[in-house]
């Protein structure tokens, strides 16, 4: 899907020692941050309660599933990745939710579907050509998602405690400092965060 274009590699299917180490590191630290543990259940339960509270505004009338459901999903994931929870009314997370939704819409673009079937293509077709073929909007969205991630990284760097990692971002920043096993790359980090957001 869109991962065929993000870095022209797939987080799950990419091969090689560096990518295997990155995958192992990511899965281990997501578990350490709560993924698959009872603490994750507590996070989900709280977000569900907030979502239900938001639904009460629509009692007695038909309504499409509100965007606040997407915010609840983002909050569940972002709590593990960045130890941050957004209020449903927060404009920043509303904008981010719109970015993610628009990226999934672009995932239906015929060229993206073609890239999904033939992942070698985005590696050999210049980005300028891809943009002219209709993917410029997707590239713009990816830049804005990257900025969102960059802001979170910058904030974590200011308060980073090497001895007490709070979340996945902290763990990756500490690993970047150590620069072991081929993990120490902000490009790897940005790609991994995008992959987590798009795949969960």
From TrEMBL:
GO biological process, one term: organic acid metabolic process
SUPFAM superfamilies per record: Cytochrome P450 (SSF48264)
GO MF annotation terms: heme binding; iron ion binding; oxidoreductase activity, acting on paired donors, with incorporation or reduction of molecular oxygen, reduced flavin or flavoprotein as one donor, and incorporation of one atom of oxygen; steroid hydroxylase activity
Family, similarity comment: Belongs to the cytochrome P450 family.
Domain of life, per lineage: Eukaryota
Organism per entry: Armadillidium nasatum
InterPro entries the UniProt entry points to: Cyt_P450, Cyt_P450_sf, Cytochrome_P450_fam2
Xref: Pfam families: p450
GO annotations of cellular component type: cytoplasm
Record-given protein name: Cytochrome P450
PANTHER family: CYTOCHROME P450 2U1, CYTOCHROME P450 508A4-RELATED
Keyword Iron attached: yes
Keyword Transmembrane carried by entry: no
